[in-house]
Structure formats: structure tokens, C-alpha cells
Amino acid sequence: MSAERIVLVGGLWLDSSVWTEVVAELDKRGREAVPVHLPADRDTALADQLAAVLAAVEEAPGRVVLAGHSAACGLAWLAADARPDRIAKVALIGGWPAKEGGAYADFFPIADGFMAFPGWAPFEGADAADLDERQRQAFAAAAVPVPEAVARGTVRYASRRRYDIPVTLICPEYTPAQARAWLDAGELPELPEVKHLDMLDLDSGHWPMLTRPAELASLLASL
Q: Can you list the residues of the chain whose pLDDT is less than 50?
């Protein structure tokens, strides 16, 4: 079993507390995990959130397993690009990085400088099928609006050494077979050039840290 610290980065609208159960489950499995607090003030830019991830990577005693969720798969990959020597593996949970020159996460309307949680309508179906009403209400109440300069930040890479880092794509609301088909069709930017790419299935919706924390922790602990 690997001994690297696991650094956890949540996707849009999530604060670091979303990882509480996953961290506890990883501790049971003998793995240390640290969730990243992402700044989200009005003047926060994509570079500021990347700096928070890099700080967590650099504070680790050795190399880390860096896990990004959803849009934050992009933050994880930007960190891998910036610090390839400090990252042993990258886990991408329910997402993949944006292409060079693309927007980080410009998915929903911006109002008053923020991209607010849009409600559950865009996520009906496989994304949110395993969230009960209590979980949906708690998620919406705790949702952290995403600063405009983060959502619309331009993704820039600097080092091809990121492609040497082993990557595991954890597939929650879709299957590895679907992900493989998207990869073959050229629909997953950055991943075709990764030299060591694995895919793992996870029977859950888009937020397995809330609905399947033990199962997600088991997969992360195996990396």
C-alpha cells in the first residue's frame, strides 16, 4: 500500500468540510488525508485557488496523491503541471481537466461577480439520483458561490512532465466504458497524452463523498 498523503480538492460550491467522512474512512484504512480550503472571496482568481492547492502539496512531508473532484479535476491537473516532482499520482473524480486556453468552469450564469449554485434542475438524473431530500437541502444551504475570476479563469499549462504522472479516473455517475468511449472520441482534453491512465468504477452519483464516502475512500486508499 502507498504511504503518500492524500490531498483532496472539492469541486464547484463545495467547502473542505464535504470531505469529513472520506477523511475519517481513509484514517481507518491507515491513510492520511488533507482537504484543501479554497478561497472564494469576490476578488479570488483561479491562480489563488491553485495557490491553495499547491500550498497543501508543498506542506506534505513527501510526494502526495492529489485527488480533484468535478471541476476541481482541473485544479488538480494544474497543480500537477506546476509541481510534477511532488505528486505521485492524480485521481480525477467525476471530471477531467479543461484544455489549454479554455475556461476553468464557466458553466452557469454569473451574477454580481459570482456563479451561484443553480439549483438541482441541471443535475436531475444520474448526477443527483442518490442524494435524498435532506442531503439536497444541506448541499444547497452550504453551497459556496464561485467567484467569476475562478469560473472564467483561463487554463494555462507549462510543463509536459504532467503527462508522466499516473492518473486514475474515478467514474461515479458514468462508467469506465463510457469514459473510454469519450476518450477515444477526443472529448476528454489532456487525458489522451497521459502515459499511465487507469479507470475505476464507483456506483454513485456525482457527489460520492456525500453518498458513498466509504467506497470512495476505499478506491483512494488503493492508489
A: 1
